[in-house]
Amino acid sequence: MLPLLLVALAAAGALLLVGTVSAWWWCAAGPLLALTALGGGDLAQRRHSVLRNYPLTGHLRFLMEALRPELQQYFVERNVDGRPYDRTVRTIVYERAKGDEAEEPFGTERDVYVDGYEFLEPSMRPLDPPDEPPVVRVGGPDCTQPYEMSLLNVSAMSFGSLSSNAVLALNRGAAMGGFAHDTGEGGLSDHHLRGGGDLIWEIGTGYFGCRTAEGDFEEREFADKAALPEVKCVSLKLSQGAKPGVGGVLPGAKVNAEIARVRGVPEGETVVSPPYHRVFSTPRELVRFVARMRELAGGKPTGFKLCVGSRRQFLAVCKAMLAEGVTPDFIVVDGSEGGTGAAPLEFADNIGTPLTEGLITVHNALVGAGLRDRVRIGASGKVATGSDIVKRLLQGADYTNAARAMMFAVGCVQAQRCHTNTCPVGVTTQDPRRVRALDVADKSERVRRYQQATVRSASQIMAAMGVRDPGELTPHRLLRRIGPTTVRSYAELYEWLAPGVLLAEPPMTWAADWTAADPDSF
Fold it and tell me: What is the reported pLDDT for 2?
C-alpha cells in the first residue's frame, strides 16, 4: 500500500505544480495519474491476491512470470532428471486452475536416459476415456455409510495453518467438483461447513474440536460433530510425512480468538500437538479405538493416516486387526516428501519413508495378511498431476490426496512465509487485511477446474494404456531406468505378495518381521 500512497501523493503534487508553476509538469503528472489509476484498479480487482495486497509493486511478479520461459533454464531448481520443478508442477497447476490447457510445443525436455527416469507403458490398442471419471467406494464390512471417493481430493490442511478464506475456497471448490476435503487436525470450523463440500474430519494427537480441558479425547463432542451431514469420513492422524514423530506446530501469532475457540486452546499461545496419542499405546488398542470412532460416528468410514516407518510395527497393526476382527475402512499413506507449514528441517529431510516405498509396504502387508479387500488405501505426498495419480494407483493406492497443488490452485505463490503470518496472498495467514485479498468465488472455481482437469488427465492416461478401470493397473505398466541400457518394471523392482501368504508361509524377506510383529506392542 505504501508505494501506491506515495505515487498518489506525487501525482497530487504534480497536479498542483501544473496549476501554479508550468504546464510542463503534465509530463510527470500524466504517468503518475496513470499509475495511481492502475493501483486503484489493483485494489478493486478480485482475480489476483498479490495485486490486492501489493498494488503496483505486485506487477513485478507477473513481469517475471512472463519472462520465466526464457530465464528458468538458468534460475530454477531442477529434478534429478533435469526437469525444472517449477515447470512440471507449479505451471501445470496454475494453467489448469485458470482453465488453460497445459500443453507446450516441441515435446519433452526430459533426459530419458538418466537413471531414475520413470515412464508408463502405453497400449497399441488405446481406449476412449470414460465420460465420467471413476470413483472409489470407501467402506468395509463394519461401515454402514460408505462414501464414493474421487481419485483426487484435498489433503489435510488445518484452519489456522490456512486462512478462513483459503479453507472456504477449498471447500466450495470441493462442493462444485464433487470431491472430498480433509480438514486437517486443527478442528472443524464454520469455514469447513459453510461451503457445502464433503469433509473428511481428521483427528490428531491434540484432539482439536473434540478435546477436554486437559487435552484428552472427548467422545460426546466427537459424536455430535461426526454426525453432521457434511462429515462423510473420519480419520485418525498417527503421523505426517514431513515431520513424523513430532506434533504439529501453530505459532501463537496465528492463534486468534476464532482459532482458539475452534481448537479449544488459549488465544495467542503457540499450539504444539503431542507427538503421540493418549488414547492408545499398542496396536491392539489402536484398532479398538478406530472401531470406537466408527461407532461414535454412526458407521461412517473411519481410518487412519501415517507416514510409514518400521515395517514390523505396521505388521503388528495388521496382526491386531486379525486378532480383534476389526479393520479401518481406509488408510492414508503420507510420503516423507509431503509438505508442511512448519517442521524441523532435519525431520523433513531425513525422517520417514518416501511415498513409493510406504505405499508398497502397506499394500503388501494388507494383501499378505488377507485384509486388502476390506481396506482402501489413499496416497498423499507431492501428488499434483494426472501421471502422479496413475503412478500411485499402480503402486498400491486406490485414490490420492493433494495439499501443495491445491494451495497453488487457491493462489499460493510459494513465498515460504507460512509460519510468519505474512503470506502475501492470504493463503496461510490470519491477518485480516491479507486474508481479504483472497477472493473466495474466484479461487474456489480455480480449485474445481484444477481438480477436474487433473482427474481427466489421469483418465486419459489410463485410456492410452488400454485400461478401463483403475483396478486393471498393474506394476508391470510402470517402468524405471536403472542404468544406461537397463529398464525394469515395478513388478521386477519390488516384491509383491500373494493374498494371505503371510498367514500361510511368509517369504524369507518378510518372515523375520512377521514373526517379530506383536499386536500388543509397537
Answer: 72
Cell of 110: 526430459
| Listed residue (314, 295, 292) closest to 305, CA to CA | 314
As a whole number of angstroms, the distance between CA 333 and CA 476 comes to 22
Cα→Cα distances 398→138, 139, 243, 352, 456, Å:
9, 12, 24, 21, 16
Q: Class of the 135-504 domain?
A: alpha beta
Check residue 149 and report its DSSP letter: E
SS3 readout for 176-201 = HHCCEEECCCCCCCHHHHHCCCEEEE
Residue 65, all three cell numbers: 512470470
Other C-beta atoms closer than 10 Å to the C-beta of 517 total: 25
- Tell me the backbone φ, ψ of residue 358, rounded to 5 degrees: -65, -45
Q: Report the candidate in 301, 298, 279, 175 with the shortest Cα–Cα distance to residue 235.
A: 301
List of residues 6+ apart from 471 with CB closer than 8 A: none
State the pLDDT at residue 78.
Answer: 42
The pLDDT value recorded for residue 98 is 87
**pLDDT block averages, 10 residues each, the chain of length 522:** 74 77 80 79 70 71 54 41 54 86 63 91 96 96 97 95 95 98 95 96 96 93 98 96 77 87 90 90 98 98 96 98 98 88 69 94 98 98 95 98 95 84 91 92 96 97 96 96 95 97 97 98 95
The three-state secondary structure class of 478 is: strand
| Structural contact between residues 319 and 518, judged by C-beta atoms closer than 8 angstroms | yes
**pTM (predicted TM-score):** 0.88
String of b and e for 104-143 (b: at least 16 CB within 10 Å)?
eeeeeeeeeeeeebeebeeeeeeeebeeebbbbebbbebb
Burial degree of 103 (CB within 10 A; 0-12, 13-18, 19+): exposed
For the chain, the structural domain boundaries read: 1-74, 135-504
Element (H, E) at 324: helix 311-324
